[in-house]
Amino acid sequence: MSTPVSRSAPSRVFVGRLAGTPVFDPLGDPVGKVHDVVVLLRTKNPPRAVGLVVEVPGKRRVFLPLTRVVGISGGAVITTGLLNIRRFSQRASETLVLGQLVDRRLTLADGSGDVIVSDVAIEQQRNRDWLVTQLFVARTTQTRGLRRRRGEQMVVEVGDLVDLVGGSEPQPATSFLATIEDLKPADVADVMHDLPVDRQLAVAAELTDERLADVLEELSDDDRVAIVSSMDAHRAADVLDVMQPDDAADLVNELPPDVARSLLDLMEPEEAEDVRRLLRYEERTAGGLMTTEPLILPPESTVAVALASARRVDVPPALATMIFVVRPPLETPTGRLVGVVHIQKALRESPAVQLGTILDADIESLGPHDEIGKVTRLLATYNLTALPVVDDERRLLGAVSVDDVLDHLLPEDWRDADTEDTDTAMTRSAHG
């Protein structure tokens, strides 16, 4: 049984330290964690903090007005009631502290130079409004090549800055990246989806090619097209090179034809050929859904080799459950498909056992033009996470995994879909 949590008066809080803080209801039950703080930037007055973005179970981010916060202390935020679980949607007049203010470069009013925002303090006033009162900043110093780095760190008052409201040139995402470093790609995509377009682009610019590729695979079509279209063509091609071929093909298919052609010409020839091959098939067919890079081994390979292949970090979990055993060549389109070895079966065998002796040779296969309905029925009927796609000569062309099928069965806007539990609803009337 939960015990009530005592309420304490809020005090000055730095948002960077507040991020990740658990949020509790009045009885002490946890309801989520602080993800960010929403502020309204004002020309003649200090910015006003109006609410918290709280991440609740299911990775959903919702809005909690600060008028509903009765205590911020001891590593906890205490609220007056339950949260509205409708997904937070940022308004045009709002600014996210961690998402948009941190890393912004501003100018000191005394003319002593520029600073970069590292953290922001909010403080409750006598009228119970929360205002941004101070910023933790670092002076910028110029180095060779006109690049700027962080120097002396200090706390400044809001009035000591001249361009907080008007903003500045596009800011880097150095500090923001630290807050998403440990998140899974799908969660990073969810965070990026909530950012304004210019901030999305800034974050994308500082992610590694591999990390950005993973995130693009999880973003909605509109978001990833906007990001790739804004990137330098050579970098965009490099990112496409490291994406799963089916995801890269889906993305290329959404781009304007001239952009798609130029990026394919800049990609590595082998990777580009895989993408071009997938683009020949209709989107909702086995050929359009498949990846050309499943786990493929010859019959004489051993269980030890199969398990090592399945452990590769670049192999999606749905594909890691099955080894496709073929005659040479081993690159798709391969030689004739002999059968498959289920990883669960391989785990029960000696490491030296050859794959050809433990085959499932009766697995159902798909043709590249089979419709998604057939793909779904076979996956469900045989409780599989992947199926081989073969041509008329039974050469392996690729494999369809259950996660790719789900992406195409769900509504197009499933990543943005909201569900609302009316029993826990709370109005957002105090938002502004």
TrEMBL record:
SUPFAM superfamilies noted in UniProt: CBS-domain pair, MgtE N-terminal domain-like, PRC-barrel domain
InterPro entries xrefs: CBS_dom, CBS_dom_sf, Mg_transptr_MgtE_intracell_dom, MgtE_N_sf, MgtE_transporter, PRC_barrel-like_sf, SH3_actinomycetes
Swiss-Prot/TrEMBL keywords: CBS domain
Domain (CBS): residue spans on this chain: 359-417
A UniProt-annotated Pfam family: MgtE_N
Name of the protein this chain belongs to: Magnesium transporter
Provenance organism: Georgenia wutianyii
Origin organism lineage: Bacteria, Bacillati, Actinomycetota, Actinomycetes, Micrococcales
